[in-house]
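[agent] plan:
  1. take the single chain provided in the ticket
  2. run structure prediction with default settings
  3. attach structure tokens to the ticket
  4. add a short note for the reviewer (M.T.)
[agent] executing step 1
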Amino acid sequence: MALRLMQTEIRPVTVFSKVMSFNLLNSDITDTRIGLVTEMIRAELPDSLGTQECGPNWYISLNDALNDRYSVYTGGSFEQKYVLNAIFYRKDKYELIESASGCRSLSDKAIADDGETEVESTQPRSVVWVALKNKNTGEIFVHYNLHVDYGSWAIIKQQLIDLKALTDACEYPYVITGDFNLDMYDTTGPGIYYSTILCQNWNDARVEAEVTTNARTSSVTDTSYAVEEKIYTAKTLDYCLISKYMIDVRVFDVVDTYVSQSDYNNRGITDKGDWISDHLPVYVEFYIK
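[agent] step 2 finished; step 3 output follows
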């Protein structure tokens, strides 16, 4: 955190909030990975953290490791197991407004572009959200968190429409974190068509930030494991979106501190299961206007 602030020359810090998004990768969970994730969260200290693939083992491990500072909200979605989108929030700084928080299933069926074929989601999907009130300032913002399906462009489109209906009804400034399984900067495939839904309805914190402190443009890594080497191929699937006209973004960062090759070599980590995840955390600081 100190290094990030030293690198930024922006307007004086008044009151700003910090959110993160992180797909934890529900498979290959090891004690080393749990330790790395816990270390990362404590170092970055987000006000709220939207997780994806936070299955029972992750949920229990992180809750045990962080409960001195964080509370966790699932909106009753824990039964969905590995598609759980738990949100961890700082209980020392924020009060949860339960009446404005919740969880809702996303569409599991849609009609394909041919206008006839019905397609289904590969898994049950949901969006979880928390309304958080700053105990010192009284400011309120809502944090939506989700993991969009990957099986069909029609399903992705419908689930984004579902999300739009929720945020349109929100009376507070809000942020949306998640793994969207969609690269809005990919101009080669059908993703560019559906990504216009994102651009038309929300602002991308990556674009709006006063300072982007990490030159890396991708927030997710597809990792291929060759013999004793790891190869990154980058996509942009993880986002922090913000409500238009209500929020200014101070900093956007992709946290790759814990996945660099030199870092893993120094830690002596060679096993696939000891990599922090196949995604990178996205970190955002913002002001409420």
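[agent] step 4 note for reviewer: Confidence is low (pLDDT under 50) at residues 1-13, 217-233, 260-274.
[agent] ticket updated
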